[in-house]
Write a structure and sequence with these properties.
globular; alpha+beta; nine-stranded antiparallel beta sheet
Length: about 200
């Protein structure tokens, strides 16, 4: 009985330790990234909505920029505060990600998908699009598009990055009249991608 109590007490301590340590790490990541996004975007309005406790936040920024009037960033983090779900998330391949929706001030009419990397998987519902592969430095960029000029314009954003490997997927989302991107959090990749967008216009 005493051994059982000791084991339960140890487990409770580990769960508590993981919770507070994981919570601290995730909050630190969110605060740092939010501060960087605000610094480069200089929003006139901003709103943050927490999702799933400490696993992420939805940030919406209204900008005073004609080319890009708004940015929505969904920060999705590993559940580091969960003693049980955190290792499971690592096993199934989950990673920290930022999903960006960069609103365009111009009407977007084309369909474009870009994915860096030789092993990049084909996006869904692109069977009717043209497909090619281009080389940017050491990076292979796979492209699906219905308008070559639009594909080249978006490729120019990727070319503006010193290291495009932080970008998993970038696309023209004409339904939202915005540019969509899935980006790793490592090496400040989301901030660098937004800077590349701002420089391109």
């Amino acid at each position: 009985m005493n051994n059982t109590i000791i084991i339960l007490a140890l487990l409770a301590g580990l769960v508590s330790l993981q919770y507070w340590r994981g919570r601290k790490i995730n909050l630190s990541i969110i605060r740092r990234l939010a501060n960087e996004l605000e610094r480069i975007l200089q929003p006139v309005e901003k709103e943050y909505i927490w999702i799933g406790g400490y696993v992420g936040v939805i940030a919406e920024y209204e900008l005073k920029k004609k080319e890009f009037p708004g940015v929505k960033a969904t920060i999705s983090l590993l559940p580091r505060h969960s003693f049980l779900y955190f290792p499971f998330s690592l096993l199934i391949g989950r990673r920290d990600r930022v999903y960006l929706l960069i609103k365009s001030g111009q009407k977007l009419t084309s369909r474009v998908h870009l994915k860096p990397g030789k092993r990049a998987r084909k996006p869904a519902q692109v069977e009717d699009l043209e497909h090619d592969t281009v080389q940017i430095g050491r990076t292979v960029l796979k492209r699906w598009y219905d308008d070559l000029d639009a594909a080249e314009e978006l490729t120019g954003v990727i070319k503006g990055l010193a290291d495009p490997s932080g970008v998993k997927h970038i696309a023209v989302n004409k339904e939202e009249n915005a540019y969509y991107a899935e980006v790793k959090i490592t090496h400040n990749a989301p901030v660098k991608l937004i800077k590349a967008f701002l420089r391109s216009n």
